[in-house]
Every structure is written in structure tokens, then in C-alpha cells.
Amino acid sequence: MAGPLLQACGLGAALRSRAALRPLGLLAPPSRGVAGPGSGEAALEENPFYEKYRDKIRELRRSSPDVFESRMEKRNEAKKQPVGYSSQGEFIRCMEEKAEGLGTKTSKGGFTKHKTLDSILNVEMVKEKSAEEIKQIWNQYFSAKDTVYAVIPAEKFDLIWKRAQKCPSFLYALPRKEGYEFFVGQWSGTELHFTSLINIQTQGETAPSQLVLYHYPELQKEKGIVLMTAEMDSKFLVVHEAQCLANQVQLFYATDRSETYELVETFNHRSSEFKYMSVIAELEQSGLGRELRPGQVSDKS
Fold this sequence. Notes:
With about 300 residues, the protein is α+β, with helices and mostly antiparallel strands. It contains 13 helices and seven strands. Mean pLDDT is about 75; it is low at about 1-40, about 80-90, about 105 and about 295-300.
């Protein structure tokens, strides 16, 4: 039984926590390019996700009109770039500032700061178990939770971790009914924080996380496994959407295909050459992009 080995105190509350998130969601319709915007809030209203973020957008406009107008101007300037290309210089600087903040600021909206493996699992007790037994305990416990989880082989995590040190951020595409919503993943230690792209465009380095993947390498050397679980804001993501983002981490960071990982390198080190439509193409080629299509249900196992 998993009960005696797992520390349930505080976990349920953490997984049910909600973060105060800001408006966003740059959308790219399938096989067509990026939805063409106009200017200001009127242009944002054309975004299929506007209703979901409307109150936050209007709050920003009311409380900080100068900041709102400045960010709308930057957004419009970015939209003048050729379809499929992105000038990432300022954006990368913003993400670097956000990464520094992740290590020092108090977690917003109920996300657990410095979430440890000991808060979930009795590590001393499981050291007597085999890797397969620990995997069964972990999967059995989280299978009843509305969250993302995994047991990652040590060799695969080694590759992900080494690449994350060199390329700490990347742009992920989440399939939606209307097209694709882009999310940025930013590593902070062994935590991977996801935030919608438009969230960053409107809030800058203060944009809060919408999904956090927690990786635990404590058993990596002895048992050959790395445990992973997550927290998310369910007002903006459901489990199978968060699972799709988590699957893409392995798709782009643990791939054997040089062409796939080259997208990550380009995003981090040759930003002027980065093509976000290539992310969508890679996602569709992998098959992950089909999991969230209308009428289909994602399997998180």
C-alpha cells in the first residue's frame, strides 16, 4: 500500500491551489500562421481566449494605463515581423529576469515554494524498495490525483538536465480548438515553470506561473529514477493540457533527433533565426499535437 510511504499532509491543498494569472495566449491557427491582430484591447478581443483573460486585461488597463499601452505597442510591433519568425532578443532578456525572480520571490497564488520530495514521500523508507516498487507506489498514489506525474529513467533525465543548463527556456505550443496557444517553459533549478506567452508580453518578468513541473533527483544515483509531479492553475489548464506540455519537454529536451533539439538551441542562442511555426510542425509530426484535438481525449498514463 502507498499510504504509509506518502506524506499526504498539505499535498491535496497544494494541488488544489489556484494562482492569480494574467491575460494571455498568442494563437496560431493550424497550417495557416498566426492570427492577425489589430491594435490595443480591440485587437485582443479578437483572440479566442479573450473572455478567459478579460478581467485581468481590464484591471491592468485601469490600474496602469501607461504600462498597458506600452505593452500593446510592443505587441503590435512584434506582429509586424514575417509570419513564422520571432525577434526574441528583448523576450529572452525578460525571461532571464523572470528566472532570477523565480529563485527569490515568494510563490504566487498558492504554488508551493521549494516543494521537497520529503513533503510527498518518506524517502528513508523507500530506500529499501526497488526502483520498480517505488515507481508503482508513485504511480498508484498520483493516479487518483488531478495532476501530472512521471517516473523518468536516470539516463533520460541526465540528458534533459544537461541540455536545460545550456538552454533554460523554450517555447511550447498547446493545441486548442482554434489553433495553438504558446507557452514558455523556464527552468529554475529542477523546477520547470510554464507561463503563457501573452502573459509574459503583458506582465513581463512578473508574469506568474500557470504550471510547475517538480523533478526530484534524490533517488537518481541509487535507484536510477527521477520522480516528477506538478502543480497547475486549473482556471487556465486542465490535466490533459498540462500533460501535453510535460510530454513536450521530453520531445524537445530528450530527443535523439538533432533537428528537434536544434530548435531549443536556436531559441536560446540564435533568437533571430527562431521560427515558432517549426515548433508546431515538430509537435504535429510527433503525434502529440493530435491528443487535444476536438473529440479526442488525452491519456496521461
